[in-house]
Amino acid sequence: MNEGLILRALAFAAHKHRDQRRKDADASPYINHPIALADILANEAGVTDPAVLCAAILHDTIEDTETTLEELEDAFGPEIATIVAEVTDDKTLPKDQRKQLQVEHAAHASPRAKLVKLADKIANLRDIAATPPADWSTERKREYFDWARQVVDRTRDASPGLGQLFDQVHRLRP
Ligand code: NDP
Ligand code: ZN
To answer: pTM of the full predicted structure?
Structure first.
């Protein structure tokens, strides 16, 4: 555990996401989501690897803010930046293709990137179960749960414990 590095990642992500909100009805602060991933990894799965915890905190910065890979490399080093790049979708592609590519690429991700992916899917299913996007139909929630399972079935080898946490929340499929 490297508290200094982790808190620096938290300050960096909080600044990058400062004007963004989640899609739940209350429009929660965006940073709650990266914090949830780190909380799951550290406190539910017992992960102590600071690179994984930092990458979890930073996981949506390239995809959803103006942050570049080079910026992360400069601030946090190539190890953490590479994990974040591995969990970043190419937003120039249409959404359906992005989702399909996540499934196809998941099995080939590094073990650390798989941990971040697992925590991301757990956090998002918990959010959809408890505080879903206001305009999502039951069908759309089901499609998300089914797609998340496809990604998790290709990453769960990295952590049986996280796989079990995913199965627990997947039982809440509407
Ligand atoms: P989106 O990608 O539009 O939204 C899901 C993403 O939003 C999550 O992965 C998460 O990403 C982020 N997010 C922000 N707030 C929340 C929250 N409160 N709860 C959960 N996630 C949140 O959805 P999809 O395109 O993935 O849609 C799901 C499925 O539905 C797909 O299979 C798609 O094909 C289908 N679909 C169905 C429609 C319909 O009307 N039936 C319409 C459009 C799509 P992150 O972790 O990166 O922040
Ligand atoms: Zn996420």
So the answer is: 0.96
